[in-house]
Specification:
By secondary structure, the protein is of the alpha/beta class. It is built from ten helices and 14 strands. The chain folds into two domains: 124 residues, Periplasmic binding protein-like II (D-Maltodextrin-Binding Protein, domain 2, 3-Layer(aba) Sandwich), CATH 3.40.190; 96 residues, Periplasmic binding protein-like II (D-Maltodextrin-Binding Protein, domain 2, 3-Layer(aba) Sandwich), CATH 3.40.190. Strands 1, 5, 6, 7, 8 and 14 form a six-stranded mixed beta sheet that branches. The N and C termini lie far apart (77 Å). Bound molecules: glutamine.
Length: 257
């Protein structure tokens, strides 16, 4: 009798443990996505104020495949990697160019897109297809305004900071290129930002045009927490398939129209 009770108790305990374990497993996994929604078509606000874009479609697809609930936070671009470094299940998805100093604080995924820096200026400012960075800065320095707008913490900002050294031009930092472009002709003579955002920003504006700069090609990656190489591996497999299936191109077309 005593033995039976013990066996029943033990069985009950095992069942309780199993139930707890499975409860633990069904708990929702969360992927915290940090972005800056002033960078169309990669991330921008739709007419309802919702963050949408290529990067958002990409992380939602990844979340769905890997069983994560995706939570999007719209923060300053230059605060993204700090957030990522604090949370094992965080990712920066913001058209982020791969850079050695960023690689020191976060883990880069495979490359999912490429870009180059563009300059947005009043229509007809430059002749020709491409503008030499030195010519762009010379134009800004010779203008009455003498300032050029950039987005804080971006590769465009670093490029311009370097180029204005020892010139009469100076860089003004904005939280994004959409806001910076509204100041063209008043506070800044031009704005430097990545290709597709530059095209999106100047597209429907008669008074603005954009040109590629003679700058190096940049590669966009998702930046993950340093302690989650396992997740990056899983994500890279999905990215590879997405690129092969033309999904990223599809998202880019969808958000550029
Ligand atoms: N690609 C640029 C960078 O990584 C700009 C990104 C952005 O402004 N969202 O710095």
């Amino acid at each position: 009798m005593k033995k039976t009770v013990t066996v029943i108790l033990a069985a009950a305990m095992i069942l309780a443990c199993l139930a707890l374990a499975s409860c633990g497993q069904t708990e929702e996994k969360v992927l915290n996505v940090y972005t800056n929604a002033g960078f169309p078509p990669y991330e921008y606000l739709d007419s309802n104020g919702k963050v949408v874009g290529v990067d958002i479609d990409v992380v939602n697809y990844i979340g769905e495949k890997l069983g994560y609930k995706v939570i999007i936070s719209d923060i300053d671009f230059d605060a993204i990697l700090n957030e990522v470094s604090k949370d094992k299940f965080a990712v920066g998805a913001a058209g982020m160019s791969k850079k050695p100093d960023r690689d020191e604080v976060a883990l880069a995924s495979d490359v999912y897109a490429t870009s180059v820096q563009y300059i947005i200026a009043p229509t007809g400012t430059f002749e020709g297809e491409q503008v030499a960075l030195a010519d762009a800065i010379a134009y800004v320095a010779a203008s009455g305004i003498k300032s050029i707008g950039v987005q804080a913490g971006t590769t465009g900002a670093y490029l311009v900071d370097d180029a204005v050294k020892d010139t009469e031009a100076k860089a003004i930092e904005y939280s994004n290129a959409i806001i910076a472009s509204q100041d063209i002709g008043t506070t800044v003579a031009a704005v430097v930002i990545d290709k597709l955002p530059a095209e999106a920003i100047s597209k429907d504006k008669d008074n603005l045009q954009c040109w590629p700069l003679d700058a190096e090609m940049e590669s966009y990656v998702l930046y993950f927490n340093k302690d989650n190489a396992e997740l990056v591996k899983q994500v890279n497999d999905i990215l590879k398939q997405m690129i092969k299936d033309g999904l990223i191109d599809q998202y880019t077309v969808k958000h550029s129209s």
